Structures are given as structure tokens and as C-alpha cells.
Amino acid sequence: MRKSLLVEVSGVVEAPLERVREALINRDTLIDREAMVEREGRFTVEYHPGHTMTVEVTDGSIAYQGGWWYRGEWSLTGHPQGTLVVHRVYNVAERMRWAVPLANRLFMGFDKATREGFAEGLARIGGDLGCSVHLT
After folding, report:
1. With a threshold of 0.85, does the pTM exceed it?
2. How many CB atoms lie within 10 A of CB 129?
3. For burial by CB atoms within 10 Å, which of 14, 50, 83, 131 has the most?
4. For the chain, what is the largest distance between any 2 Cα atoms, rounded to a whole number of angstroms?
5. What DSSP line would sit under 12-77, residue for residue?
6. pLDDT tens digits for 67-104?
7. Beta bridge pairs of residue 78
């Protein structure tokens, strides 16, 4: 798979990796949480009628791929203050790859919205776990 990085954001959650992974899975409203906890590997889910997404789950990452261009990857690694969470959005379009950055510029604020959404999500995880978080 060919992929081009569009946005990368990261932060630290001051909690152990296993707790952060569970909290990340629990905040996802599109996917059956029990399936994600019990299944590792790659599987497909329907998130809206007629729309599917490929989900890949490992001990240290969760990735979502859907639509004609989108792939979002969340990676979790140990950090001296807890867990480093990195979110990357990639262009994985097989056709018309050149159109993705152009289309995202037309969406005005995609980069900013991704960063704000990440910060809000990290804050929610910190709130759920009762710990501090900070962006890196």
C-alpha cells in the first residue's frame, strides 16, 4: 500500500499503555468495542449503510481505512510519563492521489480540525482515566 502523510499529531497520556489502549477503543463510537478488544488483526465493519471501513488492531496500534483516500493510524508506545499517542492521517488513494491534498485544501481547516479533534479526544481519555495529558 502506498501512503502519503497528510497530518501528524501526538500527545502523552500519563497512564499505562494498556489503560490508554482500552480507553481509546472505548471512545470509538463507530466500531463494536467488544469486537476490537477481542479481535486483533484486520477486519471490515459497516459504519453507515453501504459504507465499510477496514480496521486493523494490534497491541500498539489501531488503524481505520475507508472511503477512497482515508487512512487514520493511532500508535501507542511507552513514554517516561505514561503513553505516547500518535495519530497520523494518510492519503492512500489508488487513483487520483493528486486530488486528495487539493480536496482537503478545499475542506478548509482539515489540518486544524484534525489537531483540535485529537486534542479533545486526548483530553476525554485523560478525563476517563483520571490523569493528565499534554500535546507534544
Report:
1. no
2. 19
3. 83
4. 44
5. EESS-HHHHHHHHHHH-SSS-HHHHHH--EEEEEEEETTEEEEEEE-SSEEEEEETTTEEEEEEEE
6. 778 899 999 999 999 999 999 999 888 777 667 666 66
7. 83
